[in-house]
Amino acid sequence: KLGSALNTAISKILRGGPPDKEQIRELKNAMLKALLEADVQFDLAAEVVNEVERKSMDKGLPDGLSRKKSVLSIIHDELSKFLGTRVYPLTLHPDRPTLIMLVGIQGSGKTTTAAKLAKYIQKRGKKVAVVTVDNFRPGAYEQLQQLCSSIKVPVYGDPENKNAVKIATDGVKKFLDEKYNTIIIDTAGRHKEEKALLKEMKELTDKIKPDEIILVVDGNLGQAAHDQASAFAEVTKVGSVIVTKMDGSAKGGGSLSAAVAANVPIKFLADGEDIDSLEEFNPTSFVGRLIG
Amino acid sequence: TDFSIKSIAKVNKELKDILIKNEVAVKTTDEICKRFAKKLSKIEYTRFSNTRSIVLTTLREVLLEILTPSQSIDLIELVKIAKERKNPLVIAFFGVNGVGKTLSIAKIGKYLMDNGYSSVFAAGDTFRAGSIQQLQKHGDNLNIRVIAQNYGSDAAAVAYDAINHATSKGIDVVLIDTAGRMETNSNLMAELQKICKVSEPDLKFFVGDALTGNALISQAKLFNQKIGIDASILNKIDADVKGGAAVSVTHISEKPIIFLGVGQNYEDLESFSVEMILDNILP
Ligand SMILES: Nc1nc2c(ncn2[C@@H]2O[C@H](COP(=O)(O)OP(=O)(O)OP(=O)(O)O)[C@@H](O)[C@H]2O)c(=O)[nH]1
Ligand SMILES: Nc1nc2c(ncn2[C@@H]2O[C@H](COP(=O)(O)OP(=O)(O)OP(=O)(O)O)[C@@H](O)[C@H]2O)c(=O)[nH]1
Ligand SMILES: [Mg+2]
Ligand SMILES: [Mg+2]
Hints:
The structure holds 2 protein chains of 2 kinds. Chain A has 11 helices and 8 strands. Chain A has helices spanning 2-13, 21-37, 42-58, 65-83, 110-123, 140-149, 164-177, 195-208, 225-235, 253-262, 283-290, and strands at 98-104, 128-132, 155-157, 182-186, 212-218, 240-244, 266-270, 278-280. In chain A, helix 4 packs across helix 11. The longest helix of chain A is centred in the first third of the chain and has 19 residues, at 65-83. Chain A starts with a helix and ends with a helix. By secondary structure, chain B is α/β, with parallel strands linked by helices. Helix content of chain B is 51%, strand content 14%. Chain B is built from 11 helices and 8 strands. An 8-stranded mixed beta sheet of chain B has the order 3-2-4-1-5-6-7-8, with helices on both faces. In chain B, helix 2 crosses helix 3 (51-67), helix 5 (101-114) runs parallel beside helix 6 (131-142) and helix 9 (215-226) packs parallel to helix 10 (244-253). The model of chain B has no long low-confidence stretch (mean pLDDT 95). Chains A and B meet through helix 2, helix 6 and helix 9 of A and helix 1, helix 6 and helix 9 of B. Residues 101-102, 125, 131, 177 of chain B line the site of one magnesium ion.
């Protein structure tokens, strides 16, 4: 629906002969507006628009309908460049245990994603277990237990323990002893202003040394997403992003900006609450939806 | 002298950038720029005028108009009125997933208690894993009773249960928790309509996340259209939010923001202040 606004603008602007200065300005404004409405961070959106102008001026636009097609494909390419044009799969060690840690802002969908990821990995023949080090949110342990019971994945938690690092080391040790080869660690929500919680996240990653740290990002996030993600990436070595709640009306530009800010690929998209709603990320369809 | 079309357009372009960077949704930004240009075009100034202060004053007027759409809601006043007519004040909380509905209920339960009023929580999220235990633990922490049934039970029935309990026990307020739901999911929106039809809340509070981008427009629009919003609560303001979401949600719902969530503790609840948002956005 948003894409149709961009589509209409492009069609109108490129109707006649080669576009004049005024038409180019109009086109840039329409593109910028579409990207901002899709929640792409302001500077990134401006960068994309300038690049599209430069590229379409460089090779000169073809006439008629193919002109509109080439502008759209340039926009598509510029956005895809941010995401990497290939698929980045989740790496699981074939010969030794893999530790995955989920971090992110409060309510982004970490706990729900932990269960989804556990099922996804279990389907690939791994023996999966989940540890929750969230000792703050009431009912966090019960939530994860209930989510994982349907897939018979064991959950370790110790909500009474004030030390998240201790819960993590105890849980990981227990599951390694029991020969689980993939352990997912769910953490409490935190944002960039909560310095003590950022410090806790750093301690967790330093002590546990996860093979992959995944930043879980709510697909509804707007302009704030970019700087929040930078802050996470500054504190700890974020390896990838999982975007959640893409079954809403959001276009996902915030999560794209988060991935750019952390300089990591998006590996999965979640588009629903149930445990099967997790798909491997496809940059082409994501960008297609972003610009409609 | 009038402001020229060209100078208004120039200021408007700068204004648009400022608003977007302050997290105001695009649709709301367009509306603000439109109203701002209209007001500015009607202003006459002399060579002694401070045009910069005229621009800032005009902008402040437009933002103030949008941020104070209607009668502000004084919760304590409404509780007093309900007490006088010997009925509990019933409040339903709704919004998309993960915005802080459940924690907001706990915070407001505490706020009411601090003001000498009793409340009961209705565990109306009978769907999500751990939702009932989460609310029950908040209730235990605050010594506030939670009315719940089993997972999978009818949320409207739980709300009805809680209202009967409050009426018979003389409890002042019923706070109804509901499951998070995407505003675009028509089945879930129909379920929420049923909950409200059965419980007939005196107040319907839309709960939003201050970090939300343009989706907030669709959320506010559809929840208002299908359910009706009496006031909004915006959470996670403490995440270094610029405040634009407050402008967007008020613009679309045309209803006031009653509370801001500024942290994860029970006392992290602030009554909405227009000045706080204006100070953030205005240069
Ligand atoms: N519609 C939809 N809801 C989702 C999705 N992922 C998670 N949710 C819901 O979002 C809400 C928050 O999810 P949680 O898993 O509790 O989020 P969290 O990051 O663990 O939250 P904290 O631990 O409090 O930081 C819940 O209602 C989930 O069911 C999704 O892809 N789509
Ligand atoms: N920093 C901060 N965190 C908040 C605020 N309000 C809520 N949270 C956190 O956000 C997360 C989600 O809160 P919930 O109360 O479970 O949200 P919800 O809307 O009930 O979620 P669902 O029922 O799953 O849709 C929890 O980790 C809360 O502690 C706030 O104002 N500031
Ligand atoms: Mg969680
Ligand atoms: Mg809840």
